[in-house]
Structures are given as structure tokens and as C-alpha cells.
Amino acid sequence: MITIDSLTKAYGRTIAIQDISFEVKRGEVLGFLGPNGAGKTTTMKIITSFMPPTSGVVTVMGYDTVKESIKARRCIGYLPENTPLYHDMRTTSFLRFVAKAKGIKRSKISSCMERVIFECGLEEVRSAVIRTLSKGYKQRLGLAQALISDPPVLVLDEPTMGLDPKQIYEIRQLIKDLASSRTIILSSHILPEVSQVCDKVAIINKGRIVAIDSTSSLQRGLQDNARIVLKVKDNLDETMQIINSVEGVLSVSSSNSCVLNVETIKDIDLRPELARRVVEAGIDLYEISRKDMSLEEVFMELVTEEITPDA
Amino acid sequence: MRSVYAKELYIYFSSPIFYVVAGIFLCITGIFFYNNMVYVSLLASQIAQYQISTGISLNDILLRPLFADMSLLILFLIPIISMRLYAEERAQGTIELLFTYPLSDLQILAAKYLAGLTVLVVIGACTLVLMVLISLITSADWGLIISSYLGLLLMVSAFLALGVFASSLTRNQIVAASISLGLILGFWAIGWFANTINTGPIATFLKEISLLGHLGSFLKGMVTLKDIAFYFCFTLFFLFLTLRILERRTWRG
Q1: Facing residue for B97 by CB, picked from A51, A93, A145
Q2: Are residues A177 and A241 in the same domain?
Q3: Taking the CB of residue B144, how many other CB atoms lie within 10 A of it?
Q4: Residues 83..142 of B with a Cβ closer than 8 Å to A: which?
Q5: What is the ipTM of this complex?
Q6: Confidence category of residue B253, pLDDT binned at 50, 70, 90
Q7: Would you call B94 and A49 a contact, using CB atoms and an 8 Å cutoff?
Q8: What is the total count of domains within chain B?
Q9: Do residues A44 and A91 share a domain?
């Protein structure tokens, strides 16, 4: 429902993003990752029509964000970075303003307000002045203003920044609940969060997309070798010898007395073969599992890879 | 558009700026009024004592100086009211909310401008009490009063447009207020300058663009199409310029 086609944005001579293209389908949650200054926020500002691109086209629900900006904006709920809010207003008066500004019908305003107040857990602070709210409540109010018109597309710039673990969990649950019928783009620095919430990940570095794929295939696809971890009772040296004799095994190492890390070639899954050989030798096998790279490792690999040729 | 208008008024009336500014303006206007009244009563007692006919009317010694003083005070009021309109949104980042809601730049500008104007009109309307007081003691010249208020309203509209323009240039409210106060005083000074040069086409030109010069005829009780058109064009010109600035800013990010 969001298509981005060869998007470029330059601020004067500085190029913030260069030739970005991707697509987010209905019901998908795309995690947008990248180091600070990589162009995440710029991309989000263009998607939400806050500013036009230097070149390239973005469409949201089929509407061009430059030519049919007002229609495109009607489809989007946007939570900007750092959650800007009108600090002099009260929670309900702010939400009423947002509802009116987004063109919600007068008769539906109260029900929409009650819905987001409930969804985002704002009952306790409904008549508080926004200035006095805690960081967590401000973040929830920011989310509430994005959700109030029940938009099909959500763009969330670091939605869990500055929250405590419990609040992060709650917001994450909320996003998961919302995901079924909506298209969501969210940026985050917290990588485990992205792998939990998102179906798809786009990694951006220095204004270019360096990888875009589903979270799991990204974690698998980037490894040169497959990694298998074995846990045995004892006889470590004997086990190592047995494993080394299996075809396809590249190296074996042990991190402590009963855990072995095995590197194998990527194309075949050696787990059944390894298990059989170890058990046939009469060694007690406790555990055998494949270990994928964590999203952190994938991220670091991609981002550092990009940096090296320039240096 | 109504939503933004309501929001701006909400913020004006819930923050101390409005009350401080209105309080100070009304106090000082009150002092001027009292001063003029003392002078009037002094003159009246002298006239009664010496039985002289002076040909001096109440309009000359009470109303005109009062409106002239008010117009000067308002010059300082406008930048304070207008400075926050765009600068505050930029500084707080809320401009990202406002500009991504389904509202056009023109709708937002119109709402903000009208909200500022409403606040100034509310402050100005408080001075009607003084006119009622005058009409209680003598027969007030309501024609002159109405034309003076109309002149003030038009002048305020024009300067407010200038103030909104200044506010759209920066994220710093103090800078916005300084720019608009500077420009307003500049237009005021042009009138003095025109008087010094006195003759020639340049003098005429300067007189025509000086904002207070146009106010003068309203304060004399004359409502001319030329003066109304001048303020109207001035207002539209600066509002148009503001739209251009906003457009350009978003293009550059």
C-alpha cells in the first residue's frame, strides 16, 4: 500500500537519501533500520508529505504524496521523531483538535476519542495538561493522535524511544494488534524489537537501502557458513574427531566443556547426519540446534561492509 | 480550518501571554485616557471661568490624541501576539504534525492569521468601555469613534500579516518578534522621513507606503477607499509572501 520508487532527497549539496525503492503491502509491518543520520527520518517525512522528494515518486494507497498530498495524508497516521505535542493543551482538547483537523465527522469525534484513549491507556490523564505528562504518556498520546482517524497506513518514527520495559512491551503489543489490517512502517534502534514485531526489514545506510527482506531470511542469508551448536555429556575430544570426519564440516571449536560450535557449508543441513554419528559412537547428545545470526550481527555486518570501501 | 483556529485560540487564552499583554495595554491606555480627561476638565473649567469661546472640540483634545496613543501602543503589541504563530510550531516540532494532517498551507495560514486577529480585536474591544464613559459625560462623536476603530482594525490587520510573515521565517520567537517590530517601526519611521523630504515624487511615495499616514485620515473621521485598499493590499501581500516562504521551507526541508 506504500510504494517508493527511486526516491532521492538532497538538502542543498548533502544527499540524504539516494535512489531508494521498496514496497510495503497491506498487512505488512516493515522495520526500518539504520545508523543515525542514515536517512530513516527523511524517508518517513517524505512518505508523510511533510516535504517533497528531490526526485522519485511515493504513493500511499495509490495517491501520489506530492500531487494528491491531501488525499494521501488522509490515509496516514504519523508519529514523528521525539513525539512533538502541543504542551499547553490538555489531553482531550488536543485529541479533539486532531480529530477535527483530520476531518473526522462531528458525530464520530467522541467515539473515536474514547477508542484511542482506551487503546493507548490514557484514561488516567485525560484532563491533564500535556506539559505535565510523563515521557511514557506523551509517547502514548503521540500514538493516539496517529491512530485517531483509524488510518490504513501508520508511519512510526521510533515509537518506543524513552519508554520503560513495561511500556515498551505494551506499545509493542499494541502495534502487533494493529498490524493485522494495516500497513505499518516503523523505525527503531532496538533490534530485538524489530525482529519481534516486523515481518520485513529494510536496512538503510548512508542514504541507500543495503538490504530488504523478511527478518528470518535476512538472518540466514547473510551468513557465509551455517552454524550448528551441539551439547554433549562428555568425551569432548572424541566427539570433535567424529564431527571432523563428517563431510561438509569446516571447523569445530568448543566454548566450554560440553558445548561444541560447528561451522558447516551453507547449502546442506548437516544436523541429522551429525546427530546420527554422535549417537552411534555411544556419546550422550543433549542438544543440537542451528544458530542463525542475530539481527544485530546482520545489521553490523551490512553497515560495516558499506563503510569499508569508502574508507 | 476551524480546527486550527480553535486550537490557536485555545493556546492563546490558556497561556499567560494574552493576559499579560492585554493587561499592560489596557493599563497604559487607561493612564493616557485619565491624563486626557484631566486636561479636558482643566480646559472646561477655564472656559467656564473666562467665558471664552475657543472653537476647540472634544474630538480634538480627547478622542484624536487617545486613538493616536492607542495606535502607537498597538505597534508594540502585534509582534508579541504574532511571534509564536509559526516559530513556536517549528521550535516544538509540532509543525510536523500540522503539516502532515490533511490541511492545506493556505487553510492553516488563514486559521492562524484569523486567530491572531481575534485576540487583538478582543483586546481592542476592551477599550470600548472608555468610549462608553465618554458618552456618559458628554455627547460623543460616534462617527469619529467608528471610523477610528475601523482605521485601527485595518492597521492591525496589515501589521499582523507582517508579524505572521516574520514568524514563518524562524524557529526562534524572539527573533520573529524582533523582525516584525523592526519592520513595523521601519514603516512608521518612513512617515517621518517623508515629512523631512517634504516634496517631490519620493516624498509622495514614502508617504503613501507609511502605514500611519493612512491611519491619519481615519482618525480625522474620513473613510476613503484609497486607505482601505492600501491596508488590504498590504495584508494580502505579506500573507502571500508567508505562503511562499512556507512552500520554500518545505522544499528545502
Answers
A1: A145
A2: no
A3: 20
A4: 92-104
A5: 0.85
A6: very low
A7: no
A8: 1
A9: yes
